[in-house]
Amino acid sequence: MNESKQSPPGTPEISYTVFNDESQLKAIQGLIEKELSEPYSIYTYRYFVYNWPQLCILAQHEERYVGVIVCKIDHLSNPELWQGYIAMLAVDPEYRRQGIGSTLVEKAIEMMKAEQADEIALETEQSNKAALRLYDSLGFIREQRLLRYYINGVDALRLNLTVSRRSSDASLS
Amino acid sequence: MQGITTEQPTDFQAATAAAAAAAAAAAAAAATVSAMRTKSESRDLEREREGNSISEQDEWSVSECGFNDPEVQRAMRGGSAAEDITQYPIHGWVDVTQEFHEACAELLPGELAQDMLFGLFEAMSAIEIMDPKMDVGMGFDKFDLPPPSFEAAVAMGAIKLDALEPAELIGVFDALFACLVSWLEGNSMDQVLFTCLYLHAPSQIQDKALRVFCIAVRNLIVVIKNIIILAAVNEEEDFQLYGNSALLGAEKAQPATIAGQLKDVEDELVRKCKKLPPAEDQNLMAVVHRLRFMRHLFQAIYQVELMASAESAEEAVNEIYKNLNVASELLPLIKRTIERGTQPVEGSEAPNPMGFSPRIHDRSQPPTFPRSIKIRERPASYQFLEEMVARFKYACKVIRHKDYYSALNFFIEYSRKSGHCILSRSVLQNLFSSSIRLAHGKQSMKRFLRHSVQAFNSPPVLNLKHPVASDPKVQQHLETFFRYCTNMNTFNQFIRLCGFNRARQRDKLAHLIENFDPLQVDAVRLDSLMNQLANERAMEGNELHATALKHSTHFSTWVLYNCFRAMLIYLMSGFELELYAVHEFLYIYWYPYEFLVGFLVSALTRTENILLAQEEYAEHQSKLQVNGGGGGAGGKNRKAAKPKKNKKQQRPYRQEIIYYHALLSLCGGMYKAMGALTKDGRVRLPMSKFDNEEIRYNRRFAPFVPLTSPPPVSYAEFKSIRDHMMLSSVEELYSVAAKHFDQARNVLESIQNPEQEILDLLQIARTNFVVMNVLARGHQKELKRQPEFDFSKHTYFPIIKLK
């Protein structure tokens, strides 16, 4: 029942790399723009991929980029808390249902954990069932609903995954 | 490294903006210049740039940019630059092109030079000029004329100011109502209402009907804004308060004159109608109906604003109600005559062929991505208004609710039904706060709360007829407690937050619950002070006072009951907002099943028992008095009247207790059902790699942790209870779940004259009972598919559907 992480036999071999070159930016933009209801300016892409190139992971089938995840990590909202943030995730429609999205998110979480993230947050469209199922299966909780969050008037859900060991024993005592 | 090619002109813009943010000398100013350049200019710059060499970075200096120039500063303070965006400031420009190019040459393709202050927000708010998805100006090409202003439209003869045909009036009026509705739905006033040029300068309109209608709309805007500001339950996603204030301010609002002006025009037109042959007067009557609808709607809303200063809440609300009634009677007539008006041209953005300039304010919008504006269709707009008028009428009923318990119930119900409309929510807030202020005088909150506790469980110390109420020590303790309650504002906040949109309510409830803790502590202290005092009075031989003070749990029960309700609403709102994944349902239903609903039932039962005991005691006392020889005619009457009243009051919370019993069984059913489905392998569980159920559990119940009572329940406790449940076989679990649903059905069926909610819950209980039984018998045993959970009948409970 769970999302399969392993690609079934016969599916293409996917390799994963982190962002390292401006030339990849067009591919990233191309993948993301197909997914999103609203545009991101070039500044937004650059903000992420140049500040946290290690957290921009690309999925590649031979020469073709087929998936990407763009993240950041900082502690601006709370100096005590390193927050990872998944800004964008997209998989080429032709390569869906092969666990690429899942793998990208897992890899990104691993990277952010390695950078001492306490939690990982993101927003997604409330109507995006596929994304919600993916994040549910990874243990994210939907913390907040944001009404009319997107330009097209659709609600968003804010999701959160606590990853650090030290906060697990906090709260209820 | 490879240079920037002309195929990627945007790269250059990014680089320039980035360089601008960098510490490089005058880059900041230059970026502003570059942002104003066209694409081809950018390319030219690029080519130049390639030839430039790297230079030393200069210190950024304020004076260099001219901002220290006193005249520039004066101009900036005066806001003249902001007023006319087409004019550059005259002073303070320094040419830094050269330095800028040199600074840029240091960067690799795509590389960011980024200022500390350039964060995610700035990156996301920045737009790429000339991209039509981002740059609002791209809607106009160079052949486009600027959108006509009022003056221009008049000069061109594009709008008529006099002698409008009835069809034209209907068209403009209907379009304006559609704009009003679109504004109330969260669009910017400038991009909907003020696209109507007639609204810009109504005083210049000669046609009286049109002029007065436009003046009414402008005044309505002002009044609605006031109501929403006063109610303060709006959030940025609900409503945009701000608009072109210069336009709005150009003609002074005089709301008190509106009804009279509208009435005058109506009368004139009606007289005119009478002179027309019967077949020709219908269009004109359709105009009259719209003017009349506007008059009554306006009056109703304006009176809501005035209610704060009314002398009698009842009278004021009666007036409002009368106006709403007339307005709602007019709407069917108006809806039938929409076709008589001029209709919007197909494909045009304007809601009416004449009088609107759709993009007139696009350029004065905040410089972010343009939000698309969709003005509602006319029939849908009137539908909205019809429903809104009905909501206002319903809101008027709040005036009957003079105590906290019933007012809170009303607010919760109202929010469920009208939660999406900001004006309806605001109207309710205003009506209620005026109503309790008028009912309880100046010290409204404190007196309101006193009255509320009395209405809830009538402690003898609050009964002014009881001699113990005048005990100075009692008075002092009560004063302290209610002052504290008023200062903490928690109760008031609970009612107020029901006015926010549903998503925000949950966030606010989380904070509210925390605030109940100090109140609980204080209420427990007050109750124990009363008990102490009972002992003192008993020692003094004052039996009457001692009995009245003894065994007091009134205040702590009252506070706890309200806290439990906040907790239940908080927890269950997560279903409505779709915040819970299916694998989380188990512990979410478990908590109210195991604790919360039971707490509510016992608080209410305790309250009923207290009331009963008090009444029995009072009856006993009055019997003693009667037997003691006071039995005149008056005494007899009193005695005859009392038992009747008592019987009615004995179980005031019976309905609510039954409702909670049903809830308890439904929660139990869902908890056990989720246990069974999980054990049966029919629930998609998260992968264990990152998931930690304990963390999820703790986050879900985090708002309850600060409370002393009820004490927090740790994950370990939950886990041991669940593990114990899970020892049973899957079939047993399904059967137990079915039993719970059957119990719920029984309880719900016992309710006489059930409301729709009860019927819906009944259907859920019945269906789930069947589904659980089917599963218990091993249906689809091999097919481990997660069922569908359909919340369309009720926001708290789903119908479980096997696919």
Automatic annotation (TrEMBL), chain A:
InterPro entries found in the cross-reference section: Acyl_CoA_acyltransferase, GNAT_dom, NAA30-like
A single cellular component GO annotation: NatC complex
Signal peptide start-end: none
Domain N-acetyltransferase: 14-164
Pfam family, one: Acetyltransf_1
Annotated transmembrane regions: none
Molecular-function GO term, any one: protein-N-terminal amino-acid acetyltransferase activity
Organism domain of life: Eukaryota
Keywords annotated in UniProt: Acyltransferase, Transferase
PROSITE patterns named in the record: GNAT
Similarity annotation: Belongs to the acetyltransferase family. MAK3 subfamily.
Annotated protein name in UniProt: N-alpha-acetyltransferase 30A
Gene: LOC117569387
TrEMBL record, chain B:
GO CC annotation: NatC complex
Stretches with biased composition (Basic and acidic residues): 38-51
Main location: cytoplasm
Pfam families named among the record's database cross-references: Mak10, TPR_NAA35
The keyword Cytoplasm is assigned to this record: yes
Every NAA35-like TPR repeats domain range: 395-800
Domain (NAA35-like N-terminal): residue spans on this chain: 109-207
Keywords noted in UniProt: Cytoplasm
Biased composition (Basic residues): 636-651
Entry keyword annotation includes Calcium: no
InterPro entries named in the record: NAA35-like_N, Naa35_N, TPR_NAA35
Cellular compartments annotated: Cytoplasm
Region described as Disordered: spans on this chain: 33-65, 343-371, 624-651
Assigned protein family: Belongs to the MAK10 family.
Protein name: Protein MAK10 homolog
Source taxonomy: Eukaryota, Metazoa, Ecdysozoa, Arthropoda, Hexapoda
Name of the encoding gene: LOC117570829
